[in-house]
Specification:
heterodimer, A: 621 residues, mainly alpha, three-stranded antiparallel sheet, globular, B: 282 residues, 12 helices, transmembrane helix (chain A)
């Protein structure tokens, strides 16, 4: 077990070094092989880990972590000087001071450095499978990038190094270690966003850097208060053990701040939107599928301690607001990747909200959302890459001929959007579970529950408006071309997309099984509560909630089959006519509707800042 | 056995019931305008006439999506009548509407596009209100299942009259009745999404409209569910209200509709939810 977990940390690092040295063909084989191995290992861990598995690494690691922390901050300092950014500089100095002080007061002995429980393994599977698929996709994508051969290798190298960082971050129990790897993901973001080396990339990379540094600073603050208030060592398990001690709210709130920053909640949404200038596989990996999932991960980890506290209430109210605000913001966008980024922020808000509510069912809802959102968004982003590379589209308004020129891509994107929106797909499940279980919440915290339900109902409707807008462009075609011939893209592209599509369909079909064997055990271990799963009548009962399996499965047959059949079906013996246009012969150019919602963005930011202030204030009171 | 028989019969006969309702509606509307109006069975005569027309489509994707709109709407109605989860029913209805919207977008017809745009916006107008009403009902009955509303001791109408008011405000949007018939707007966009369907393919859209009638009146019936007489009375009232309104009001534009729904109907539903959880909950 120990060896397997360590191999999840070491193997990606080794690959990341090797791709720099090896020739192109060999490194291709290496990338594909190691992607497969990592997925298999994480899958094996999923079935084999029952109890939380604690282990420490040798004492030298503490020194290594401290030295790495200092080196990292020195690097950030050099970035601040090079780019003349006083904000980065100030935050780096603050972090440096805090770190040095902490190193002085941190007690020597740690009981466990790492904890691998079901939640970690849940994340392992998501991280390794998705990162594996994306790294295979990037082999092809980065080939077409306009940069030197070394930078192409360098790109793959950071990608694998990032996988290692993610694997460590979800299993580290020690917060000093957690801080280091949190900052390393920030570094990965910074390097990737600035990868294209133009002016706008540099600017957005700096924004991402300083915003995420605030999150890092919040973690340092949390460590400080844990040690200062005398709760013992700064580990997650220790924090959860002290969850009922008064005064523990401040470190919890600071960790929530770190999560909310990483999860790009307003006003920090700017960094995620700016991150869309990075190469598309990066957007898929860091900025939608894995790295930003650290946000719900932290909240899930803390949920037993957070549940019912005023901090949780503020987080719930705030994410409810962000869910609507991000959806409204998306309505004014035309760039495909920016639309995806906005909807990522909205859905992250939903996940964080579910995790912060902390009842068994909402935890399951959060896990469902994390899982299915990871798969669907990854597929959508990879398709954005294909659109960019093969079809040369970046704006959604250009896509109105895609159903004719690229029927496969258009079909896959349609399914991707539907999986975020409609029953029976996973993201719908999360939303539906959310509404149902927040009904229960309202009994305890009545006003909050009512507001949040309004937020989910409105945000959900706005998001559906948004997705229909894009879907509508994808499906439009004329009656002139009746044949459907799937376009030929590159083999690596179609392979990765097909794998993802298969995974989505498989996991939706096996949702009742996934529910009882995958999400429920994770949720039950996270909360240390047994959750009962029974099948009674036509329904799968999970805790207090009933999942109507039969209608959902029928809906599953109905919807995808409809979409796929609609693409292929051709009615025989039916006459074709032109569209009705009042007898006019002019060509109409179609566009979708846009709402000028940009004006609201500053107000949203202000409200977001107010929420952050409230979060800290309630934790001190 | 009897419990399941009535819903199944209702589900199977839903298109016929919807057709009769539609026929009756045309008579009532005509009488309001001092006309005689068509016979009660006119929708069925239209149905037979349409089946005989020459088959013409723009393209197969479009025609097929129209048919699936009907199928999925029937499915949503079936889940509702069988006492399923109300939130799920609302989402399944969204699914069926989504197929209609996609059908609208799938052609390069300007009116079809406009209709699809407007249908999408009307989802934003009625869906949040319906969800809030469903959650309020949950607060009272303790379950999202429609069947639990039937088993609940009192009529929802007296427990949450504001929810009924909010429902009255959004039903014309859902049924595409004036002043909120912007998605259809015959004088403006010549029927919107419906326009490009014809003959036997239009039939699917046509019957889907009847099913939508049944769907909406079932929602109204739920407010008097434990007293069938009250339930029928409510349905009749909603029927007369909607058609009277349809006859007596002029069409608004989509911005006015959005504003009305988000500023008037949604807050009413929200106040109802607050009252329910603060004062009425057990």
């Amino acid at each position: 077990m120990y060896a397997l977990i360590i191999s999840l940390f070491i193997l990606p690092v080794a690959v990341s070094v090797l791709v720099l040295i090896l020739p192109k063909n060999l490194s291709r084989i290496l990338v594909i092989a190691s992607a497969a191995i990592l997925s298999v290992i994480s899958f094996y861990l999923l079935v084999s880990i029952e109890e939380p598995f604690h282990f420490g690494v040798s004492h030298y690691m503490n020194e290594v972590v401290s030295v790495a922390d200092i080196l990292l901050l020195l690097y950030f300092g050099s970035v601040a000087i090079r780019k003349k950014s006083w904000l980065v500089g100030l935050l780096t100095v603050l972090q440096f001071g805090a770190l040095l002080y902490l190193l002085k007061i941190i007690p020597e002995e740690y009981q466990a450095q790492f904890t691998v429980d079901k939640l970690s393994v849940f994340m392992f599977l998501l991280i390794n499978v998705i990162s594996g698929i994306i790294s295979i996709f990037s082999l092809q994508y980065i080939d077409g990038e306009d940069c030197s051969a070394f930078r192409k290798k360098y790109f793959l190298s950071i990608l694998f190094w990032f996988i290692a960082v993610m694997n460590i971050i979800v299993s580290s129990d020690n917060m000093e270690c957690f801080f280091l790897f949190f900052e390393l993901t920030t570094l990965a973001s910074f390097l990737f966003i600035g990868f294209r080396k133009d002016e706008i990339s540099g600017k957005n990379a700096l924004t991402a850097l300083w915003m995420n540094q605030i999150g890092g600073l919040a973690i340092l603050g949390a460590i400080f208060f844990i040690i200062h208030n005398g709760y013992g060592t700064a580990t997650f398990s220790n924090l959860l053990a002290h969850s009922s001690v008064p005064g523990i709210l401040l470190p919890l709130a600071l960790l929530c701040v770190a999560a909310l920053v990483k999860g790009a909640q307003m006003p920090f949404s700017k960094w995620l939107l700016g991150a869309m200038v990075a190469p598309t596989p990066v957007s898929a990996l860091l900025h939608s599928s894995t790295m930003v999932k650290i946000a719900p991960f932290i909240i899930l980890r803390l949920s037993p301690a957070l549940k019912g506290t005023p901090v949780a209430s503020v987080v719930i109210a705030m994410t409810g607001f962000v869910f609507v605000a991000a959806a409204i913001g998306a309505l004014s966008q035309d760039n495909f990747k920016r639309i995806l980024a906005h909807s990522t922020i909205a859905l992250l808000a939903l996940m964080i909200m579910m995790a912060a509510v902390g009842t068994p069912v909402t935890i399951i809802a959060a896990l469902t959302l994390v899982f299915f959102h990871g798969l669907s968004k990854c597929m959508l982003f990879l398709n954005a890459g294909i659109l960019e590379r093969i079809f040369h589209f970046k704006q959604t308004s250009d896509m109105d001929k895609l159903a004719e020129t690229g029927p496969f891509t258009s079909l896959v994107i349609s399914i991707g959007f539907m999986s975020l929106l409609l029953p029976p797909f996973g993201a719908f499940m999360g939303k539906w579970f959310g509404i149902e279980s927040l009904g229960v919440l309202a009994i305890n915290q009545k006003m909050l529950g009512a507001f949040v339900i309004v937020a989910i109902a409105c945000g959900g409707a706005i998001l559906s408006l948004l997705y229909f807008k894009v879907l509508g462009l994808l499906i439009a075609r004329t009656g002139d071309h009746d044949g459907v011939k799937f376009e030929k893209t590159k083999p690596l592209y179609s392979a990765t997309i097909s794998i993802l599509l298969g995974l989505i369909i498989l996991s939706v079909l096996s949702y009742p099984f996934l529910m009882s064997h995958y999400f429920v055990p994770v949720a039950s271990q996270t909360l240390s509560l047994p959750i009962e799963v029974t099948i009674y009548g036509w329904k799968l009962h999970v805790g207090a909630m009933a999942l109507p399996v039969v209608p959902l499965l029928i809906a599953f047959l109905l919807l995808p089959i409809t979409i796929i059949t609609a693409t292929f079906i051709r009615f025989k013996n039916v006459d074709r006519v032109k569209e009705y246009a009042c007898g006019e012969k002019t060509n109409y150019s179609f566009s979708s509707f846009y709402f000028a919602t940009d004006r609201a963005t500053p107000y949203f930011s202000v409200i977001g800042i107010l929420f952050f202030i409230t979060l800290i204030v309630v934790s001190i009171l | 056995m009897k419990d399941i028989l009535i819903p199944v019969l209702l589900i199977l006969l839903a298109p016929a019931i919807g057709g009769l309702v539609y026929g009756f509606e045309r008579i009532v509307k005509a009488r309001m305008q001092r006309r005689t109006g068509p016979p009660l069975l006119q929708p069925f005569y239209d149905f037979l006439k349409l089946a005989d027309k020459r088959k013409m489509i723009v393209h197969s994707t479009h025609a097929f999506l129209g048919i699936m709109h009907f199928v999925s709407l029937w499915f949503a109605l079936a889940v509702l009548l069988l006492g399923g989860d109300l939130i799920l029913v609302i989402f399944l209805h969204l699914l069926s509407t989504s197929l209609l919207i996609l059908a609208g977008y799938s052609t390069r017809s300007i009116f079809s596009h406009l209709g699809a745009n407007r249908t999408a916006i009307s989802i934003l107008c009625y869906e949040p209100v319906l969800i809030l009403i469903a959650v309020s009902a949950f607060m009272l009955t303790g379950s999202f299942d429609t069947s639990s509303i039937f088993n609940y001791g009192a009529s929802l109408l007296f427990k949450m009259p504001l929810a009924f008011v909010a429902l009255l405000m959004v039903l014309p949007i859902k049924l595409k009745k004036s002043p909120f018939d912007i998605a259809e707007g015959h004088q403006e966009i010549t029927g919107g999404v419906e326009l490009e369907f014809s003959g036997i393919f239009y039939e699917a859209i046509y019957i889907a409209k009847w099913l939508d009638c049944v769907f909406c009146y079932t929602l109204a019936y739920l407010f008097g569910a434990n007293d069938p007489l009250l339930g029928m009375g409510l349905v009749l009232f909603v029927f007369l209200f909607i058609n009277g309104l349809d006859n007596s009001s002029a069409r608004v534009n989509y911005k006015q509709m959005l504003k009305f729904s988000l500023v008037v109907a949604l807050p009413i539903a929200f106040i109802n939810l607050l009252i329910t959880i603060l004062f009425l909950q057990l």
